[in-house]
Amino acid sequence: MSLPAGEAGRTLSSTYRWSMPANWWTRKRHYFFYMLREFTALPLALWLLWFLVEIKRAADGPASYAPHSSALFVAFSVVCLMFALYHSITFLSLAGVIIHVKFLDRPVPSRLIVLSQFGLWAAASIVIGFVLIWFGR
Amino acid sequence: MAKRITIQATRFDPEKDTKPRLQSYDIPFSDDSMVVLDALNYIKAHVDGTLSYRWSCRMGICGSCGMMVNGTPKLTCNAFLRDYWPQPVVVQPLNNFPVVRDLVIDMEDFMDKLKSVKPWIIRKQDIPLGAHEHVQTTSQIDDFKQFSQCINCMLCYAACPVYGLNNEFLGPAAIALARRYNLDSRDQGLKDRLPVIAEAEGVWECSFVGECSVVCPKGVDPAKAIQQTKLDTTMRFVLPYGNRE
Predict the structure, then answer these.
(1) Chain A residues touching residue B227 (CB < 8 angstroms)
(2) b/e string for B23-60 if b means 16 or more Cβ within 10 A?
(3) Which member of A8, A134, B42, B209 has the lowest number of beta carbons within 10 Å of its beta carbon?
(4) Element holding B8 (H helix, E strand)
(5) Minimal Cα distance from A107: which residue of B?
(6) This prediction's pTM
């Protein structure tokens, strides 16, 4: 039967202390994808560091600059792109959950907020792509 | 022949055991409407009267019968045996909390956290009794209604790996209830709650696993409450006049 209410209030010195097992994130699919989402930041950070090095190299002028094009590097970049897309899609999909906006005293549907976020993402990608291609010619 | 089901329940006697162990009970599964709590009550009444666990209302209101059922935090009064039979059902105390005895956890840490967010309406000046009501529109009620459904069952804490790794984290239910009051048009206590909810081990400790919202038996979305609070506190910091009432 249920314990007296006072049971929870007393100081307990003989309780068993629960601790998280190291493999907790393998026990549920949801936890695994959470860890994957968090892990994506690491290769993205490495790729961005490399990108900074490339900018520095390119600053020396076009004559001495040749971009990396090895198969290994292209494969790494593709993996980073996949991670970036996964991270961005999960992040933007949650925008509808987080952003709470009212219009004419009625809450804006979260689906509309998510669509607007993806729309802005697409527009920003087009603008950045255009600038890179236009000035990189 | 009547169906039977095996219940494996955690046993822990702090005076004898160094760590919890599982004990199996083979009991009749006589009725498809039987829930895990019915099975525990059967064991308590007919098999082993020493088994300890909390329960009260048996209808998903009181929030006291939360346990791990096959590794998932559930209200045992709402976990039907038919969903598990013929496999055994493993019943353990809620993860992330100290175990007092058998299936009973020590909830003191949660109660302290709950009190720290002041989950009640705070007014700068109370309206005298009998003067008039705190008028509130249905739209204003809708702003916080879902967060007010929390029954303090602590399933969200058992599902939260962030709390499991760092129990200084304020946790999902306490933040959801803080948001419930912060969104209430009658409440004026935001500044009293901010020092607790906006600190590093308040909302900012959460890395949005989201499992708290998945396991909530009342459809509350604590993950949403936490992320919205992050956004609100950031906007208060960034926007001009954001910290003015």
Answers:
(1) 94, 97-98
(2) eebebebeeeebbbbbbbbbbbeeeeeebbbbbeebee
(3) A134
(4) strand B4-11
(5) B143
(6) 0.87
* B185: number of Cβ within 10 Å: 14
Our CA-based measurement puts residue B108 at a distance from the nearest CA of chain A, in whole angstroms, of 6
Q: Does any CB of chain A come closer than 8 Å to the CB of residue B97?
A: yes
Say yes or no for a CB contact (<8 Å) between B108 and A9: yes
pLDDT confidence tier of residue A14, bands split at 50, 70 and 90? confident
Residue B50: both structure tokens together: 């020493």
Residue A3: what pLDDT?
Answer: 38
A17/chain B closest Cα distance in angstroms = 5
pLDDT at position A5 is 41
Q: Do A24 and B106 touch (CB under 8 A)?
A: no
Question: Percentage of chain A with pLDDT > 70?
Answer: 89
Q: What are phi and psi of A122, to 5 degrees?
A: -65, -45
Six-digit token pair at A96?
């509808």
Pick the closest to residue B10 from B97, B109, B107 (CA basis).
B97
Q: Could you tell me where the beta strands, DSSP code E, fall in B30-181?
A: 66-69, 72-75, 89-92, 99-101, 104-105
The reported pLDDT for the residue numbered B155 is: 98
Distances from the Cα of B106 to the Cα of A7, B9, B98, B99, B165, angstroms: 8, 18, 5, 6, 17
Which DSSP string do the residues of A54-104 spell out, in sequence order?
A: HHHHHTT-GGG------HHHHHHHHHHHHHHHHHHHHHHHTHHHH---EET
Confidence tier at A79 by pLDDT (50, 70, 90): very high
**How would residue B34 be classed by pLDDT, with cut points 50, 70 and 90?**
very high
